[in-house]
Amino acid sequence: MDGNISQKDENRECCIKGACEYKPRKPVSDDIVPHILNLYGSCATPRDFEIYAPNASFEDPLMCAHGVKQIKSAFYSISKVFSESRIVEYSVEQKAKSAGKQEILINSKQHYKFLGRNIDLISLIKLYVEDGKVVRHEDWWYKKPIGNRETIKFPLVGHLMERLRRGSMLATHSLMGFGKDPST
To answer: Percent helix, strand and coil across the chain, each rounded to 5?
Structure first.
């Protein structure tokens, strides 16, 4: 009878007996997306920023942040500008790029309230993850690439847009206490 047992049957028997080495991992996005929802929902805590690598960057059409402290300033400032903010709809796609590197794409509909006016924004949030930590976070409003010297026809205009986003970030960073966590 042993001569008739196929390799497939042997593998199945090993797994049934608990000797199987293969254990499916949950997607990295399962650990990261809840924190992203908190950031965009103006209910972030210091723990929500632990998803970022120390030298991570964040960029949207208004700001360009470098490092976790500037990223904190960018997201903590949302509640100072908008009376409401949240992601109301989203879908997640995760792509493996290479060993330890993933890209998480979050197609989202964001809702904000500014001076009593509702603002709904379609966005593509792109997260580049290395070894479980976000190293780059981009928010493409209306799913359009962020304007910079590579994406604009006139590199000088793109360079100017980059400088304006950095200036906006540095002003926000200063006003937000240089990435200081709010007191509870």
So the answer is: 35, 35, 30
DSSP state of 146: P
Taking the whole predicted model, whether its pTM rises above 0.85 is answered as no
Residue whose token pair is 């997640």: 92
Cα distances (angstroms) measured from residue 175 to each of 2, 36, 172: 74, 23, 5
**Which amino acid appears at position 31 of this protein?**
D
Nearest to residue 126, comparing CAs of 148, 111, 141?
141
pLDDT in tens, 125-159: 999 999 999 999 999 999 988 766 666 677 776 66
CA atoms within a 13 Å half-sphere pointing along the CA-CB vector of 174: 6
Radius of gyration of the chain (CA): 21
The span from the CA of 105 to the CA of 95, in Å, is 8
Q: Say if CB 132 and CB 28 are below 8 A apart.
A: yes
Is there a contact between 67 and 172 (Cβ–Cβ < 8 Å)?
no
Distance from C-alpha of 141 to C-alpha of 111, rounded to nearest angstrom: 12
**Nearest residue to 60 (alpha-carbon basis) of 171, 170, 180, 166:** 166
